[in-house]
Write a structure and sequence with these properties.
Length: about 160
């Protein structure tokens, strides 16, 4: 299992929430072509966090993210681009790199899932976790793994998360 932080080049952008349906479509297309399990996810205006469980003997998350980022960017107006991005025919929408972290154990997994679900509150987008619709938190509530009034405690969520 891996935790990811994927970030737009323009940190002031709201593109991911503005184009959430587009992102979902591309994400599903890649999922059908190259299966993986989304353990947790949260889409924020300028970045997203996700935890993926990949099929056994398959650790190729890089090509999956490349397909998602490229598919999402295709058809959108380019962002501000450097000469390097122009040469590589990049649209300048995404940061080239992303944060990835191999989940070590159950405690690490729980800490990262909590971080993902609490992120909209951390960024001041909502006051309660349940008020952010672009999150797997609602699926976790439906499955009974989290209560609807779960709010987390940032003091208990420590570590490096790529932001």
């Amino acid at each position: 299992m891996f935790f990811f932080t994927i970030v737009l080049a323009d940190r002031s952008s709201t593109l991911l929430v503005d184009q959430a349906d587009r992102l979902r479509r591309i994400y599903q297309t890649v999922f059908r072509r190259r299966p993986f399990e989304t353990v947790a996810i949260c889409i924020l205006p300028d970045h997203l966090h996700a935890i993926w469980a990949l099929p056994e003997d398959d650790q190729d998350f890089s090509s999956r993210w490349n397909l998602i980022k490229g598919g999402f960017s295709r058809g959108l107006e380019p962002g501000k681009r450097s000469i390097s991005k122009l040469r590589k025919r990049e649209k300048g929408i995404w940061q080239r790199r992303y944060w990835e972290h191999a989940i070590r154990d159950d405690a690490d997994l729980e800490r990262h899932v909590d971080y993902i679900h609490f992120n909209p509150v951390k960024h001041g987008l909502v006051k309660r976790v349940r008020d952010w619709s672009l999150s797997s938190f609602h699926r976790h509530v439906e499955q009974g793994t989290l209560p609807v009034d779960w709010g987390g405690d940032m003091r208990d969520i420590t570590g490096q998360f790529g932001e």
